[in-house]
Amino acid sequence: MPAKSLVLVMAFVPLILCVDDDEDDLFFIKEIIQAEGHSFEIKEARNGVDALNYLQEGLKNKELPCLIIMDMNMPRMDGKQTISKIKENEQLSKVPIVVFTTSSNADHQKYFESQDIRFITKPFDYKVFTKEIINLLAYCADLGA
Predict the structure, then answer these.
(1) Which segments of the chain does DSSP mark as H helices, in order?
(2) SS3 118
């Protein structure tokens, strides 16, 4: 009688990296995604240095996010500097980045648009905030629905 083989199937859970030093915003982003019933793992980084360290580990482990949501104004390394470093790496540069910030600076907006990076000023209205986050999940289409 042939031996039965046991096959383990691991479920793939798409990953989103949220880079923001505002704990409330990180909390709301996670809550919105989970409340919508989507299966995403959400990793947090409080600044650009931590984000780059996380992404370097992801390169080693072949576990890169399907989306990076990046704040602009953070300690140690801001969003613009962090994105510049990400764009220097061929593999990391393929990960979609959305700047989600309190800044409404027109120069920042133009800069990121020239880099083909979506720029969103964080809305103060929770319903609009929620809608923006849900819309961002399209970057990970078919991965976590």
Answers:
(1) 23-35, 48-61, 79-87, 106-114, 126-136
(2) strand
Burial of 5 (0-12, 13-18, 19+ CB in 10 A): exposed
CA atoms within 13 A on the CB side of 111: 13
Scan for tokens 């133009």, then name that residue. 110
List, for residues 24-69, the tens digit of each pLDDT value: 999 999 999 888 776 788 999 999 999 999 999 999 988 899 999 9
Rounded distance, CA 49 to CA 78, Å? 9
| Phi and psi based region of residue 52 (left: phi greater than 0; alpha: psi -120 to 50; beta: remaining) | alpha
For 75, half-sphere exposure in the C-beta direction (CA atoms, 13 angstrom radius) is 3
Contact criterion met (CB below 8 Å) for 19 and 47: yes
